[in-house]
């Protein structure tokens, strides 16, 4: 079975996100006001084969923990859909 | 009204994503097989005030086009939820 995982990796809420702060500060300069917070992280899509949804979930969880997210500073969440 | 926008900015499908390719190549080394494609982009959350959902949508669309996405190489999509 083939699956597609949609993963979001974000800086943890209690940490500063300097890149996001810069965007907040600059949006008024391009005519966009009313924005009080911006946080910027990664969006990763993984296309993978697995025997069943449980195995797919296990693989994606491992990929997040071991490679995609720095769990000290980032949190992640994902959804998995079956595509074939 | 306060809104929270969840934006994904991804490299366009027809373009190479070298960062994603490196992840595909390295996942087997950490014991994760069966992955045939990985694409890496940005996930941005924007918290903003607007008079109504339509105005919120317009602001987020403008932020994406003018600042967050390079529309030559990246595509974006977003969902907006009302939070207050």
TrEMBL record, chains A, B:
It comes from the Bacteria. Pathway: Purine metabolism; IMP biosynthesis via de novo pathway; 5-amino-1-(5-phospho-D-ribosyl)imidazole from N(2)-formyl-N(1)-(5-phospho-D-ribosyl)glycinamide: step 1/2. GO terms for biological process: 'de novo' IMP biosynthetic process. It comes from Neolewinella agarilytica. Part of the FGAM synthase complex composed of 1 PurL, 1 PurQ and 2 PurS subunits. It catalyses: N(2)-formyl-N(1)-(5-phospho-beta-D-ribosyl)glycinamide + L-glutamine + ATP + H2O = 2-formamido-N(1)-(5-O-phospho-beta-D-ribosyl)acetamidine + L-glutamate + ADP + phosphate + H(+). Pfam families: PurS (PF02700). Belongs to the PurS family. GO terms for molecular function: ATP binding; phosphoribosylformylglycinamidine synthase activity. Its EC number is 6.3.5.3. Its main location: cytoplasm. The keyword Nucleotide-binding applies. Part of the phosphoribosylformylglycinamidine synthase complex involved in the purines biosynthetic pathway. Catalyzes the ATP-dependent conversion of formylglycinamide ribonucleotide (FGAR) and glutamine to yield formylglycinamidine ribonucleotide (FGAM) and glutamate. The FGAM synthase complex is composed of three subunits. PurQ produces an ammonia molecule by converting glutamine to glutamate. PurL transfers the ammonia molecule to FGAR to form FGAM in an ATP-dependent manner. NCBIfam families: phosphoribosylformylglycinamidine synthase subunit PurS (TIGR00302), PRK05974.1 (NF004630). Keywords: ATP-binding, Cytoplasm, Ligase, Nucleotide-binding, Purine biosynthesis. GO terms for cellular component: cytoplasm. It is found in: Cytoplasm. Gene3D superfamilies: Phosphoribosylformylglycinamidine synthase subunit PurS. This is Phosphoribosylformylglycinamidine synthase subunit PurS.
């Amino acid at each position: 079975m083939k699956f597609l995982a949609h993963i979001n990796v974000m800086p943890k809420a209690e940490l500063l996100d300097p890149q996001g702060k810069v965007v907040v500060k600059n949006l008024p300069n391009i005519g966009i006001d009313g924005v009080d917070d911006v946080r910027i992280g990664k969006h990763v899509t993984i296309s993978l084969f697995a025997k069943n949804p449980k195995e797919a979930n296990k693989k994606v969880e491992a990929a997040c923990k071991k490679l995609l997210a720095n769990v000290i500073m980032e949190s992640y969440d994902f959804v998995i859909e079956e595509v074939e």
